[in-house]
Records
---
Amino acid sequence: MAKYVAIRDIVQDKVPVGFLELAGWIRTHRQSKRVSFIELTDGSAVSNLQLVVDPQLSGYAEVAPKLSTGASIRVSGELVVSPAKGQKYEFQVKTLELLGEADPESYPLQKKGHSLEFLRENLHLRPRTATMGAVLRVRSAAAFAVHKYFTERGFFYLNTPIISTSDCEGAGEMFHVSTFDAENPPRVNGKIDYSQDFFKEPASLTVSGQLEGEICAMGLSKIYTFGPTFRAENSNTTRHLAEFWMIEPEMAFYELSDNIELAQDFVQDVIRQVMTASSSELEFLASQEWAQQGHIENLQKVAETAFTRMDYTDAIKILEASGKTFEYPVSWGIDLQSEHERFLTDEYVKGPVTVINYPKDIKAFYMRLNEDNKTVRAMDLLVPRLGEIIGGSQREERHDVLLAKIRAMGLDESAYWWYLELRKFGTVPHAGFGLGFERLLMYLTGLQNIRDVIAFPRFPGFAKF
Ligand code: 4AD
């Protein structure tokens, strides 16, 4: 194990004062005749640690010109309680070694703040910035919170396949997986002959682990997945990624109302956990110029207040009665567009809202049909500014109804033989949902572009690094 102490542990008072060793990157270096100061970060905390250097320190004078922003160093010395205001500790350097310089003429990240756009073009250096450092630590804390939440409530963590031969959402927005020569695949009667391909049938990157999740929930009762998901939709927006992470719990013996309650409890618990574990990160992010006023207070409120529930049919009535002119006209049967969702959350409810019982024709084949024969037991959780962060439903567990639905939607029933078989043998009511992890992170951090809450975003035209 490396001997270097993390600055986070110092800031959190976990390290006694005294002799220790540190390693990190220089944020700033101020020199004077009597004493020099280096602000050091190791990316473990929002705060830097102030290093105090005696200019007479052996070897310092030679390396001092190279101790510029971004250079990496290793130091040993004494951690002491700081006599200066505004910081608890400082570090009196006894030895200093320059590990790697960062030429100020060419190092792109200088001391001044950089725009989020600029950082998106420098993904290889972005994790060194205070903003991305904070985001990635929040992301890590949120992932831990998700596992903690489900593990403590008797859910089992399930890994569903990344390569799949089924299209869960039935939307056909999939990236194909093949070992064929793309320029010259084998053909029979003009069509690509997949029987010669690696899997002997067309395969893709998964759009959701739900269907496999259902298989396992039918054995273990309560599971959740947390993995990468891929959508080849050409959505060049601030809310869509081509590769995103999704959390999908699936529960046997749950109905729609149980599912709604779980989704609320889960989101609120994760918010509370992250507010505790990453309070300094959230405060730092909330202090940025792009941040919304009152962001933290708002999170606190959302974590404590029950989410509004609304029938799709009522949502349509509210939108129709709003007197607003929407770009996409409102009528029963439409899929809610971002502008409609924003009206409901930002203006009408002024908080999160769970919209339920959507028309069957705009939702996936697996959702349970309601008695009215027109709507399905779907639920979408919409939040202010962002819109949908969760999509879920009670699943159709009746074999005959499901089969009729698959046929009516023109899906290939032979491809779903196993999904139908789950309904033949020991079928049970069950439900689940999918939370987009990056959407949750946007909500937590207040960042407005999904590309800023994942280290290496993938979107149309971009898959660098
Ligand atoms: O509503 P979706 O498509 O639902 C499913 O995939 C279901 N199989 C989930 C389930 O019931 N188990 O996606 C669920 C969530 C959305 O609410 C959104 O938060 C996120 O996944 N999401 C995306 N996030 C980023 N980029 C995209 N392109 C996304 N598409 C969906």
---
Amino acid sequence: MKDILSAPFLIEMVRTTTNMYAHGWDERNGGNISLLLDEAEVSEYLAMQPLRTLETGFTAPELDGKIFLVTGTGKYFKNVQYAPEVNLGIVRLIENGTKAELLWGYSDGGKFTSEFPAHMMSHVARLGVDPENRVVMHCHPANLLAMTYVHDLDEKAFTRTLWQMCTECLVVFPDGVNVLPWMLCGTNEIGEATAKKMETARLVVWSQHGIYGAGKDLDETFGLIETAEKAAEIYLKIAHLPLVNTITDEQMHLLEQRFGVKGREGYLA
Ligand code: 13P
Ligand code: ZN
């Protein structure tokens, strides 16, 4: 049996949480990540014997038998690199997703993130549109969060503003950014609402809270959030100044042609 701490998926998770903390996106226990793992790969490292069984509080039959590496609730991203086994866990969903067998981690008696419903329901939604999706990532980047206090929360308006802030935004997230109003976090309700929004975009803003991203690997998902956050930062730098120039819709169409992408239907003139 190979050492789990040498598993590429674990190393990548440690690097990602450390990097997200360094970006200031994950104060205290803020943020959480879930990564869908390949069973054959995991079994190179683990005996696959459940250590404990946890209740999930929801049903997700589509995920039955699926294995995820998930950050622990109340755990600090800054600490993951020093104690992966305490701050992370590997779980296998069973019984229509109503239960999760702990295969490794949460070694201080902890459990998966309180946002487990939003993560698992978002995986179901994203796998429905993209079978390659592996990651759901949540964090609290300051500029996107700040933007939800001063910008119209209409999804088209919010997306268009972000697209206009950096030339590459349309290329990186042509599907745009969906937006939820403030809702109580850690509930099945916000999980269901997030998953619904995930059907049409890989980024979902939680107003006055943070953002969710989804993608095929940790790097891509990090980059997605990073790009939107950079755009929000530029917006906050210029929002109070007279706007003299912008990226026009005509220029956006040139980007679509050059990079072979298509902006969300109806979002460009
Ligand atoms: P957890 O510590 O339960 O992951 O919660 C952090 C968070 O960001 C809640 O939205
Ligand atoms: Zn949060």
